[in-house]
Amino acid sequence: MKKIAVLTGGGDAPGLNAAIRAVVTKSCRNGWQVMAVKNGWAGMVNGELSELPLESVEDIEMQGGTILGTSRTNPYKVENGPECVKETLKKFGIDALIAIGGEDTLGVAHKLTQEGVAIVAIPKTIDNDLSETEVCIGFDTAVTRAAESVEKLHTTAKSHSRALVVEIMGRHAGWITLYAGIAGGAHVILIPEVPFSIDEVARVVNERKANGKSYTIVAVSEGAKFSEQEKFATQTEELDSFGHVRLGGVAKVLAKEIEESTGVEARSVVLGHVQRSGPATAMDRVMATRLGASAVELVEKGEYGKMVSVKGGEITSVDVGLAVGKLKTVSPELYEMAKVFFG
Ligand code: F6P
């Protein structure tokens, strides 16, 4: 009987539980045993595994978060981390590991694969910035949540004749902001891929005012930068074990600048973790289910070092190294299309 371990790493995302349910259900129906790894790579380093029977995944596709727990632990930053991971696999008699995560988690999966560990990867990140896949688990839900908020903010902005600057997650990729900004009717959308100047934003606010629209909604990515500035707005300069700073604060700075340069009262709104909280959308649940089931098929065929991915709406697979080699960011063409609707 094959023994498969499954882990979720990095920031949690709606849809993870649907993927876990798919992995467990398909594996168990194949007569295999599935082990739950607690809190991502931390559980592999510390040997925290327990059985994940079929009954334990009943109805979990409707729950947000991850029943396995998650962490941002990087085994390559822990003393003897990779050796501990291999020791854990041996101790529990694991034949294959399914790692569900984003750039960081799957970057570790790629390195371990090169060291001979049998891993299949599943793409998950609300940021949607993994290469070689059109879709990552969690993105659709994050966009839906953020778009609802951007849309709702119109009524208060209009009532008070204010500019509202909404800060949206996504780290160094503007996918959530762009999609939520388009869907939620933002009048300006600012993303990390295209540095912006305060003059451009002020021009839109002033033009709207001149046209009798005294309110403006600005959707800004947490990783967006003023063209005059070198640095991102950060909550802390401290780096996590994957070398990332915690972004945040750009909306507050921008709201102040808008108020000063246009005279329009401005406020900032930080959507924060609500974007990845709560149950997944139906689209995320279905996509996560398809990706989870396909990952088990790759294990069945012994195709390790691969990530299941979505291309042209179909599930396929790619080398995990290709997915993590380069961030997938918003193209200039797509941003230009969105700019037509500014103002
Ligand atoms: O990568 C997902 C993400 O939600 C980013 O959009 C955001 O910058 C980061 O995680 C927040 O991390 P944490 O949950 O550690 O605060």
In brief:
The protein is built from eleven helices and 13 strands.
Relevant terms:
single chain; 343 residues; alpha/beta; Rossmann fold; 2 domains; 7-stranded mixed beta sheet; 4-stranded parallel beta sheet; binds 6-O-phosphono-beta-D-fructofuranose
Please explain how this structure is put together:
With 343 residues, the chain is α/β, with parallel strands linked by helices. The protein folds into two domains: 3-138 and 280-325, Rossmann fold; 142-276, 3-Layer(aba) Sandwich (Rossmann fold). It is 39% helix and 18% strand. It is built from eleven helices and 13 strands. The strands form three sheets. A seven-stranded mixed beta sheet has the order 3-2-1-4-5-12-13, with helices on both faces. A four-stranded parallel beta sheet has the order 7-8-6-11, sandwiched between helices. The protein has a two-stranded antiparallel sheet with strand order 9-10. The model has no long low-confidence stretch (mean pLDDT 96).
